[in-house]
From TrEMBL:
Its EC number is 5.1.3.15. Gene3D superfamilies: 2.70.98.10. Keywords: Isomerase. It catalyses: alpha-D-glucose 6-phosphate = beta-D-glucose 6-phosphate. It comes from Pseudomonas promysalinigenes. This is Putative glucose-6-phosphate 1-epimerase. Belongs to the glucose-6-phosphate 1-epimerase family. Pfam families: Aldose_epim. It comes from the Bacteria. InterPro entries: Aldose_1/G6P_1-epimerase, G6P_1-epimerase, Gal_mutarotase_sf_dom, GH-type_carb-bd. The keyword Signal does not apply.
Amino acid sequence: MATFKVESEQHGELNCWRISNERADLLIAQQGAQILSYQRIGEPPLLWLSDQAIFAQGKSVRAGVPVCWPWFGNLQRNPEPVQAMYGGQQAPAHGLARTRDWQLLGVEEQGASLQIEFELPQARGQLPGWPHDVQLKLLIELGDTLSVSLTSRNLGDSPVTISQALHSYFAVSDVRQARVEGVDGLHYIETLADWEQRQQQGALQFAGETDRIYLDTPQALSIVDPHWARRITLTCSGSSSAVIWNPWTERAKDLPDMADDGWQRMLCIETANVWDDVVELKPGASHSLQVKIASDAL
Ligand code: TA6
């Protein structure tokens, strides 16, 4: 007996699927295999979908969980082995996977959860400027929690080095009231101050534009949202780095797909393999980057 409902939806130029049951509602786009929204029934949204999101081919949606692969951010800021993998002209920010159509391999119930699996066929040697042979799959599991797992398997005969992230946008009542726990004492790269290395004191509270790479991260990080009386917990594996981002007032004004005050209702914690945490895949090797997202009342 199917307990999940799966419906096709069109959002602008993008093919999407809405998957729902009595506990949660999930919207996924074929482009980028990108989760666009996730809400547990009776709670505010867990993942944030911008009010001014643009649903266009070739453009990542400002929402949910964009998959950054086979590099994160500006390629020029990546370690040399990641840069050396790319032979194209202009390297798009956050790689090549988030703006391409993935193939839906299957939707299957496993006990009380639903597994949705995607593959990016072009990763097998057909990405422009990136001629390596990697099987790239994304497994989304919807149950009591939401789990997202990105697996890269090197099918070629030479090593492949990647950086990557599950660039998750979380919904909060007001970022100025929220805090991120689990970062106390960690070293981080302050990308807004010449990529200087600093050390975090206490929980992270937001008081301005934030764009940091946290290093040697623990398995669990959480977002405490006092107004919504909610804690969102991220449990990560295959990762020891995380990027935390909020554009704040001025950067948000420059983003055409974010309302001028949209920054107040979101923050990104991006489960990542970046900086000195990039992944080298020997021929035949595979790596999975995973985040499980849960929420509890405070
Ligand atoms: O992860 C942080 C970051 O790299 C920021 O520097 C900011 O640019 C953000 O991602 C969003 O990037 P995008 O290309 O999606 O506009």
